[in-house]
């Protein structure tokens, strides 16, 4: 009989070691980069205030068998009527007793800090990565996308968590994008509205970061949970991404006056090159990664990380304008280089974006759910609207595809 013991986690060895336990033998799984996770759950995260984050690990003897992080996004909570904390990076062996211990300690910690509800599993900070529980589409995960065993869903729902927000990953075959139709639409948009596009250049990341932030704020300032960004917020990320950045996968749209009014950003899906490295880009893993990045031809896919259009321009063809610019760039470099494009963390309640993606010959490939649970009596809310995804293939957990 297992002798489970829960403890506050202060060392990364046990935290990352849980993955070795849960995903042993799983041919689909790609470990997230340890540097990404440690950056989110530590001082490098701008949402960290010193006392608004805690981690726990459950051990069976010396073996780590479960983990969870709890956090309070202080700035975002200032915008909410219902104070809500978050839990994330949950992992557990297939034993509900482990999950119950993890949920209980995290919920108690959040309740003691005045939180009336808890969302999870979510990211600590930005909403464009590690958001939601995978409930349909068990395939190899893309970069910074949550992947988990199917039994996690019963753990959450049996603990009282209710579906709150739906996140979709939409996939398309790059070579099947409607290039001719897009080109005609883009030409009309340029002529009628005077809109134009530019790509983010590696030798001028400062301008790219400033324009990206302006376009982002114009596009999302009317959405719930909006948190404005500045060029200073974006620039360090651009610098980190520079080694893998493909300028043909980036685009910013401008109006006649030269103000940024739309953004489209994709990156190569580096999970194609991370298999077997266990999340380590150290002196052993980095040469393997760089070799694959340069010479490995297949698979080579790309991931959408940011798409947005200022509200006043959403009916003027900005999206096809940007997609056409990326599709035509470099003598159609994108369609010659990448097989699939994955558009991640598209909210199920954002029907305009879902419909627009479908016009680009993409469709729902994976589905994540973010849950919410009341921590105090009387806490109430309205969940976001969700799409019917019953026809989306479930995939097969752990099987290489």
TrEMBL record:
Gene3D superfamilies: 3.40.630.30. This is GNAT family N-acetyltransferase. It comes from Neolewinella litorea.
